[in-house]
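Glycoside hydrolase family 42, Pseudoalteromonas fuliginea. Tokens?
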Amino acid sequence: MRQHLLGFTLAPLFLLTTACSQQESVAKVDNNETLSATQNKYEQTATLKIAKLKKMMQQAQSKQIDVTREQSIIWFAEQFLKFANWDENNYDAVVKLFGYERHYAADKEKLAKELPNFEREKVIQILDKGIKELGQELSGEIKRRPVNKVDWQNTKAQDNMFVSNDKPIFLYDYFSKSVGQPLTNKDVYNDHLGALYHGGEDLYPVDHDRAINSFLVREDGTFDEELMKELTRIPDTNIGFLVYWLMGIPKWVEEQEPEVRKGRSLFTGFDIDNPLARDIWGKIIRKTGELTKGKKVTEVGFVLANEPHWYAEKGHWTQKFQEMTSISSYTLNKFRSWLDKKYQGDINELNENWGTHFSQFSDIAIEIPIDPAIKGEPKWYDWTRYNMDRSTDWFTYVQNELHSVNENADTHIKIMPRMFMDDSRSGGIDTEALAELTTMVGHDAKSFGSENIRPGKSSKWIEKYAYNWGIVTMFHDFMESVAPNKINVNSESHFLSSGQWRDLDTRTSYVRSVYWLATLLGMDANMGWFWARDPDGSPEDRLEGDLDFFDPGLGGAFAGSNNMQPHVTNEVTQVMFDLNSFSEEIIELREQRRPLRLFYSETTAINTNDYMTKGYKLYENLFFEGFPLGFVTKNVIEKQDNNNWDAILVYRNNFVTDEEFKALQGYLNKGGTVILDSAKSLSLDEYGHPRKAKLVANKGKLIVMPKGADVETIKQTALAEVSGSTPDVVVKVDNGESFKTTTWRTVKQDNGRYLVNILNLGHTTATVDLSLKNGKSIHVKNLMTSNKMNTSFDVPSEGVLLVEVTVQ
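Tokens:
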């Protein structure tokens, strides 16, 4: 098994053995410039290689060979050589930056000393790779497709994709990008780092951040025009996005509404049920919607909230940030009204469910935060369901206010995937409802490229896989199932680092694989976490001096991030170039029918402790079967064409509402196929009351698995029901393990050829054999190199392969 590095030490510089002599302190380069004697040997070597690659680029251009990829390599090489010098000359500052991250704090002096030459090593590495690849193209060994570059001025959002120069385009950039730098600075906004303009988050120690925030409105109802300039002075040049930053609330609001902070959350600093807070935000949203109507900076949409959640259970980690430690009278009264409607005015029924003795709905009281010990009881369900509904009501209000003045404004919410992936449902987020509500799908999906750096956190996935792919794929498959015709925006992708993982020597193979995987599964735009270097190499404004943030994550985020890793940052751009070169093929592979659908019930998720954990195990077993997985819910069954799938698999869904049950029965009545994992499926309502009704086949097909059926048996039954939808191309894989780690997608093109995309997510090399169901002979071509391949070939760990299969 590969060793996953949590830190780094300087390895022997084997890359330099093919370079010019390391002993020379002065050397000549082709442009007749002289290398400085003060440069260290790594920088000298890098400078020579830059000159060599530039000369090769001139040769390539004379042959009409695209050198967009090499232009970025040169740019990153030159930038990071500059950054390495800054790091070397500002040792104390770098020590402090390492010290903010507890994982590195103990070794901060050693790491700060090693960092500059580590960065120079990695610059040499990316230059060597670039020289080799361009040399192969110059010699005719390979032929690459030219890059389909993003038109940062004229890209448009269409129904379910961005389009640039009449082709699909996948946007890339960095969220929270070099705060303090003007949007016109080409060293920050360019083809290499991405060039989306935005009003994003500025986590200053005080609430007066420079995104769209509560302080724009004064007590007299007028707007702070000076703060508004942060929005109005954004040049109408590049496309971009805007963020509604909900952290702060002015003091004058607290004076008028003493309860306004009750029910706050980590990134929403006020009670969303408070009428004054709503009035203020209604004014802000209408004003900013009017000011930006038709502007390019909103082409990628409005982010309606940053990582919203309202965890309301005792003992949750968010309570140390004062999240939902109490609720306001407004929230309580809305809950009472919600219960009145839910129970159709029957207080006796509520009392029977709750074990209480309230005389009327206006007397109802509840302790918040709620005790998780009562999970599965009616009171838990009612509060948790209401908490979701009230947040959906808030976002409906926000979007409606925006659309009242700017009806075509696109919207999305930075939903944390854990709101869907984790077992807890006390956070107040209905992932499906919000995906249906907004015009685009929004989130901040992440992955782990190596072991979790936080004590006590599991990294069990590493026993089988090179990286934690499942937290990317299951979330994307769900979002693409419930909102299949919407653009998918990851407005803070944590693929490169996060609070729970980072690796100072992150593998470029991991970077390529995870970005490719997410894009294949639906991601149309990503803003990575994060770019925090000013052009001179210094960290951006917020990371200078003594840090005192409300959010503790930012201070430690710089250490071990891509800001210290030229090979990682370059690879992000390189993989996005390649994805955009094959954007039409990726869309073809992406937009396939999902023949098998897993039934998802928010009702069961609310009431049980392990719904998602156990559901993931089934999903994991089905993921490596060569076709895209999907999900259905009550809403999907009722609103989407049921012919889009062959069968629905109901797994560990004991608690469902009558409406969910009726949706499944209606699907059977129309001739659908339903597989139940056991006779207990669907047996309880949302309150745990036994359901008398049972599904009947009618015109459809109902399969009830025998008692004790395991995941493998259920899986094989499901695969048999969708066997008629398996692809024409047969992919056989041997990875030397007892479990599968290679995933693939195939699609037949209009010209009769087949696209095949293969990703090896395991630790070992996989041997792949391609054939056709009908037994006809085939030719295989690697689309990345234009070279012919055998029908049997190896794919290394984290390998990415896109091939074309032609029938002879």
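The two ends are 40 Å apart (CA to CA).
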